[in-house]
Amino acid sequence: MTLFYKKIKDRLRFYDSITRISKILRRYFVMNSFDGALTIFGMLLGSYVSGVEDTGLIIFIGMSTSIAIGVSGITSALLTEKAEQEREIKSMERALHRKLHDTEYKRAHDYATAAAGIVNGISPVLASLMLLSPFFFFEAGIAYPAAFSLAILVFFGLGIFLGKISKQNILLTGIKLVAVGIICMVIIFLLGAG
Amino acid sequence: MAAILRLVLDIMVPNNVPLDDLTVKLASVGGAEGVDILVQEVEQKVQTAKLTIEGVNIDFQGIKKVLHDFGASLQSTDRVSAGKRIVG
To answer: What is the pTM of this model?
Structure first.
């Protein structure tokens, strides 16, 4: 089994050294997790301000939204990344004066496209499900504050990850993403009050 | 048929293909006992290199298959040694 995992790991490392996709995947992960979390955060704030207390309804709307974000993430990444990878293959074929279909080199680029689609699709769904999770177990009175606290934690966590990637101050990048969430919250509360 | 003992090939490889991976893979081809890749020129997207393989009964088709798989192209076969021992 360990030999099997080692083979897969080696293969993925080889694909990554050709396409450098892991750097792009990291960016996609943060960008789309934040996208998903902020969308559901906005939806929950809207429900809270409107006084919606039916947890079943919140879960249904939240799940529908997160499915839509996931499908949008997968399709947009597959289309854009496929175009980008095919452009790269064609340009390399011109440089090499040969076709590259049915080679490991081409498979590395196919892997890059698929991985981008998976990360782009799954990351916003996971982030949004995390925010929705309190509504599966608690009543609205407890679930709302729990979900809002989780949202702040997710924003901060993504900020820390972003800071680590960009080798910046992780506390600062964490606070920046939390601040974006708070700005969103203030705007929605102001809209509700208006 | 006499066995191939040495091959010297002129190849073109995409710059983003790790040469260590390519060298190790070539060394695993049947009959190859030693592989050397010497980069000669690096262009914007590709690099040309001199590939030397020594061994006993080297599987030339296997070598071509690995090169094909890694996206490399065989420019020319510069030297082939075959027989019971290497001459020159």
So the answer is: 0.83
